[in-house]
Amino acid sequence: MYRYSQFDDEFVRTRVAEFRGQVERRLDGSLSEDEFKPLRLKNGLYLQLHAYMLRVAIPYGTLNSRQMRQLAMIAERWDKGYGHFTTRQNIQFNWPKLRDVPDILDALADVSMHAIQTSGNCIRNVTADHFAGAACDEIEDPRPTAELLRQWSTDHPEFQYLPRKFKIAVTGSPNDRAVTRAHDIGLRMVRDDFGKPGFEVLIGGGLGRTPMIGMVARAFLPKDHLLPYIEAILRVYNLAGRRDNKHKARIKILVHETGRDIIRERIEAEFKRRLAVFPGIDPQLMEDIDASFRLPEFIDRPQDEHEGLLSSDPEYREWAEQNLTDHRQDGYRIVTVSLKAIGATPGDATSDQMRAIAAIAEKYAYDEIRVSHEQNIILPHVPLASMPGVYADLKAVGLAAANIGLISDIIACPGMDYCSLATARSIPVAQDIAREFNALELEKRIGHIKVKISGCINACGHHHVGHIGILGLDRAGVENYQITLGGDGTETAAIGRRAGPGFAADELLPALRRLIDRYLETRLDDRETFLACYRRLGEAPFLAALYPDNPRYAGEQL
What we know:
Elements: H1 6-27, H2 33-41, E1 45-47, E2 52-56, E3 62-63, H3 65-78, E4 82-85, E5 91-93, H4 101-109, E6 127-128, H5 143-153, E7 168-171, E8 185-191, E9 197-203, E10 215-222, H6 226-240, H7 251-258, H8 260-277, H9 283-291, H10 304-312, H11 314-323, E11 324-326, E12 332-337, E13 348-350, H12 351-364, E14 369-371, E15 377-383, H13 387-396, E16 411-412, H14 427-439, H15 443-446, E17 451-454, E18 468-475, E19 478-485, E20 497-498, E21 503-504, H16 505-522, H17 530-537, H18 540-546, H19 551-554
Parallel strand pairs: 6-7, 7-8, 16-17, 17-18
Antiparallel strand pairs: 1-2, 2-5, 3-14, 4-5, 4-13, 8-9, 9-10, 11-12, 12-15, 14-15, 18-19, 19-20, 19-21
Helix pairs in contact: 1-2, 1-4, 3-12, 6-8, 7-8, 10-11, 12-13, 16-18
């Protein structure tokens, strides 16, 4: 992983010192809250429903054991003993006191971390495939590209005050695990006709109140041209994006209102101007970045204990089948650590759990940890010989839930329990769903399914791309939950369709049970997933299940 240079360290320390002075002036009354707001947002500090919230950047979701231990220490010393991992591969602390935030930022700087550009109308944390460098299907590790973009975008003088926040995602695989089509810019590694790697560039994706799937701006962009092309996109957006209405300020609205062909022409024209003055990426810089992401030296080791447990321990076998993914190296697997134990808050990890993950990574997994956009933790390089030890250590701290990809592996935003923008709860809904289907012993029978929950129209829970999406809204002071069907965040991305009228909180679980029962009744066999079944049959039988007493849908059964 990338290590801070002297410049990086000095830059971050200078920002911390600057913010410390701003906090002191806020505390002594020299700055009003309105004056302080843009200053705190530049440093990742929000004012939420009950307290301040600090969002810490984890670039492309990669960190090491030392950094994870520091996050655990911060949670224990200055928060309430836990952190919340987010869909942008970051971590949030929900209860810091304002006077302590500069000390937290100093502690982060001690381990080469910061909270810069985790908020504001700038280029946010660049995200990447959480299996990067380990996946069998990978063309190339996307993290060097993500790191290049991080360095280029940090404090970029031209792009600090964009019309709206701007999000970039990168994947190096044809199977998209980074939701690139729902980002302002999505970069997918592809090969040209001669086998040379480059990027398919997507622009104008996004969720929120106007969900859209990104369009292809360039089918193939040579790697050497990445920065001038990204700059061309940002320049067109920065000049033409709307600033009169924040709800219509994202690049997706510019693409929609201007037209795809015109936007492509403007980008290409600006790209040509940039190429004329762009000297190219410094080869030494790229060599240094690439060197930071060299794979560890994999060693073959006996797998006898792992094989023995597969045949003798049903719980271990279930965990291995559900939470392990094939690795590019024989004798290794990618481990997904579930932060979704039944009844737990999705994405939360206690200080003790973070320390345990750090110790496991250090002892068994080449000291590398990833945060996934699905709010889980990844150990990307684990030898099968070490898997029994990994499992035992995870189980000891309540992190051995064997539910990755199942109905309890839910993405959920903080909702009305924390967020000042939320209009309904998300966390209790996720917990109730997990408990319900676990009690019914249906999880494994249902199989692969993506359920995503948002507590407001801003869609931080990515509900639009859930196979089943749930959006909580306020209806005359009462929580009401809309259901969307058929969403998909992968390479076959789609925005889910709203099913129909929303459900009161006490009606939601029965409605989901009817929906799942209909799926189990109508699927071809236990290999057909919910999404595949929905795409084969269409929405009619599922709407009839959701609204059995509504005449509008009564005739839509098979």
